Amino acid sequence: MGMFDRITLSKQFKKRIADERPRLYRMAYAWCCDPALADDLAQEAIAKGLQKAGQLREAERLQSWLYAILHNCWRTHLRRQRPDQPLDEEAFPCDECPETVNQRQQVVDRVRGAIKTLPLGQREVITLVDLKGFAYAEVAQILDIPIGTVMSRLSRARQALLVSLADVQQQPQTTIRTSLRRVK
């Protein structure tokens, strides 16, 4: 490849990255709901993409690669913001208070009961994906079923759990998050 080809490819590559800017901005805005911050995040993602262009191995994956960079920029921003947030006393209830322990156990029991009512195939998939953290492809290999079946069973199981646990969702989010994390 001659020098002219490299310059042309470089210009084409830069243009493709620049063409992704509106989509990156929209995604960043959806995450942060702040136009100025979204603009900064999109710009930072583009700058890092241009700076680290040599790390992109497959040109077809440019869009997903840029979204991954944007996501990392967003996470970095969130990490920087943590020390500035005031502590809310209600956000940190007593973990060992009888009331909290009882609420947590009730939610755990409800979730376990709801999972037990699912058909076996859905129960297997939801426990492997949501509770154990396996990827869809890994679950497909474990259960020896197509990945599409994994996705459809998981979707049906989640919908069934949403319906059966609708009243649990009405409780304060801190209690639910803590309780569901303990189910894992």
Automatic annotation (TrEMBL):
Q: What is the lineage of its organism?
A: Bacteria, Pseudomonadati, Pseudomonadota, Gammaproteobacteria, Chromatiales
Does this entry carry the keyword Transcription regulation?
yes
Sequence ranges assigned to domain RNA polymerase sigma-70 region in this UniProt record: 19-82
Which GO terms label this protein's molecular function in UniProt? DNA binding; sigma factor activity
Q: What top-level branch of life does the organism fall under? A: Bacteria
Species this protein is from: Acidihalobacter aeolianus
Protein name as catalogued: RNA polymerase sigma factor
Q: Which family does it belong to?
A: Belongs to the sigma-70 factor family. ECF subfamily.
Q: What InterPro entries does its record include?
A: RNA_pol_sigma-70-like, RNA_pol_sigma-70_dom, RNA_pol_sigma70_ECF_CS, RNA_pol_sigma70_r2, RNA_pol_sigma70_r4_t2, RNA_pol_sigma_r2, RNA_pol_sigma_r3/r4-like, WH-like_DNA-bd_sf
State the UniProt keywords alphabetically: DNA-binding, Sigma factor, Transcription, Transcription regulation
> What processes does the entry annotate via GO biological process terms?
DNA-templated transcription initiation
Q: Where is the RNA polymerase sigma factor 70 region 4 type domain?
A: 110-161
Q: Known Pfam families for this protein? A: Sigma70_r2, Sigma70_r4_2
